[in-house]
Amino acid sequence: MMTWASAQHAAAARLGREIPVLCHLIGADGNSVLGIPQDELARTLDVAADSIPATVIGIFRFWRAQT
């Protein structure tokens, strides 16, 4: 069974490096806007947070290549 964190890694490979940032979107009700199950949220946010430095570099390089 695939956990949300492992699904996140697979999605990041397909959708780009925005996923670690988007994982941190939490609604007013305290639930993930992306639908991350509450029991996987803490671990997923830890994994996503660890990925943010590389994410920022990847986004920078993408936009730099656009100019």
Derived from helix and strand composition plus strand pairing, the structural class reads mainly alpha
**Terminus-to-terminus distance:** 42 Å
Low-confidence stretches: none
Mean pLDDT: 82
String of helices and strands: HHH
User: What is the strand content?
Assistant: under 5%
Helix content: 55-70%
Rg for CA atoms: 13 Å
Question: What is the overall number of helices?
Answer: 3
Number of domains: 1
* Main β sheet profile: none
State the shape: elongated
Number of strands: 0
Write structural notes for this entry.
With 67 residues, the protein is mainly α. It has one domain (4-66). Helices cover 67% and strands 0% of the residues. It has helices at 4-15, 19-22, 38-66. The protein starts with a helix and ends with a helix.
Structure summary:
This protein is 67% helix and 0% strand. It is mainly alpha-helical and 67 residues long.
From the structure above, extract its key features.
single chain; 67 residues; mainly alpha; 67% helix
Question: How is the topology of this model organized?
Answer:
Elements: H1 4-15, H2 19-22, H3 38-66
